[in-house]
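Hi Q.,

Before the meeting this afternoon, I wanted you to have the magnesium ion prediction in hand. No need to reply - just skim if you have a minute. The sequence and ligand are here:
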Amino acid sequence: MTAALIQARDMTVSHPGADLPVLSHVSMGIQPREIVTVVGPNGSGKSTLVRALLGQVALTSGRVERARGLRIGYVPQRVHIERAMPMTVRRFLSLPTRVSDAQAAAVLERTGVPGLEQRQIAALSGGQFQRVLLARALLNDPQLLVLDEPTQGLDQPGIVAFYRLIEEVRQETGVAVLMVSHDLLVVMRASDRVICLNGHVCCEGTPQVVSAAPEYRALFGAEAQGTLALYRHHHDHDHDHVEEHVHGPDCGHHHHHREG
Amino acid sequence: MLDDFLIRALIAGLGLVLATGALGSFVVWRRMAYFGDSTSHAAILGVALSFAFSMPFYLGTLAVAVGMALLVAWLTGRGQGMDTVLGVIAHSALATGLLAASFIPGLRMNLDAFLFGDILAVTRSDLVWIWGGALAVLGLLVWRWQRLITASVNEELAVAAGINPKFERLILSLALAIVVAIAIRIVGALLISAMLIVPAAAARGFARTPEQMAGSATFIGALAVVCGLFASLRLDTPAGPSIIVVSAAIYAVSLVAYRK
Ligand SMILES: Nc1ncnc2c1ncn2[C@@H]1O[C@H](COP(=O)(O)OP(=O)(O)OP(=O)(O)O)[C@@H](O)[C@H]1O
Ligand SMILES: [Mg+2]
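Predicted structure with the ligand bound:
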């Protein structure tokens, strides 16, 4: 196993004033070239996990190790841009590292918003802004993309194109991707590994493993049935991944997989 | 040529504007108006201390402004509300300064010059202080420019790019302390933050990028200094307030001309 780009060890995070930790004893890592998706209900701590990995929130215990000089392209779940600051899309793409006009034009083309350079950021639609954020994250050859609900506000073709783009970029540059998403069906198809979060890691593993896991089905109910159906025919034949099926605390249960 | 008090006043005002255009833009973008106001009011304590220990008042005001910025950073870091901390510290410092001034005979006579400014009385050595300080501020801002802009656009994006927003905030506080020290003779403690905010606010309507806004604010500030000084001469009005009134007029015109 190569060295992880980013690795959390037994990480616990509490927000000030709250008695229960938002995340308890989370351990996880991201390898180069890997697409990892975090799923979980609202308030389950997905954004907190992402922010803790990036060093944006303090840990109560545990630690996070980041590869030295790691270049991260980040798209937060919510970005507030101060309206008092005039800012064109072109200028925004050059923050904090300046890029050439050609690079800016190319990346906007890729994310489906060509020719937007001279528009004010504050005057963009929600979906356009989301695409510009993604474009900025893709610049400067990142080793890891961290995307918190990156498809929010995108139209349906936009969502499909988004996942295709991520896969393409990974093929080209070998970038690793950590993504938070609610598009369960697409996630299951687009990820190498899925982490199911609910204050702790409930279950994790390949999409096949997670979609069959009882914890996952307990969390997502009917929607999980859909993703399970997607994999049911695989599951009977594919037991290589069972050892990757890791259980978090409070998720103890008996394995229902037939031994192969 | 420097023998003419009007020329000296012009050079002093234009030197100050070199720093306030860019720094004032940050004050507007980051909503630091109250912080600027508080720092400049607190500087009166610095003036009193300088007189008491007979040192150049530039050093005393600089020391008090820096001390206040550090104290505010420390207290807000401990969970105190920014507004309250500023209000308490700045006004205590102002009151203490006024109290101290009443015991210092040399200052009691001259207090008005520091509250309302006395640009027509600047000496050659004042010019050295003012230009030295203004160039230091400009150098500081240019040196950190990309980081400062990124941290002002969005702190989360800045942190992910390896920028420390707390450090950048400290750089701005230091720049603000220097501006307060050099501006107190020119426009007076009561109007320093107007010198920062009004030209920048007027520039907002004309600008499409942060750089254009900083540049236009500098230009508008310079225009206000020149027009304000001549108005003060012709109409026999106090110079500092005249400069601010001209900037305010430019702001009003910008509102009408660029109403979108
Ligand atoms: N700054 C904060 N201060 C206090 N509590 C917070 C803060 N940020 C998040 N929380 C709490 O932490 C918990 C997890 O929040 P988080 O944003 O990580 O959830 P999430 O899984 O990303 O949810 P969503 O799907 O809605 O984005 C929530 O209960 C939330 O109320
Ligand atoms: Mg979230």
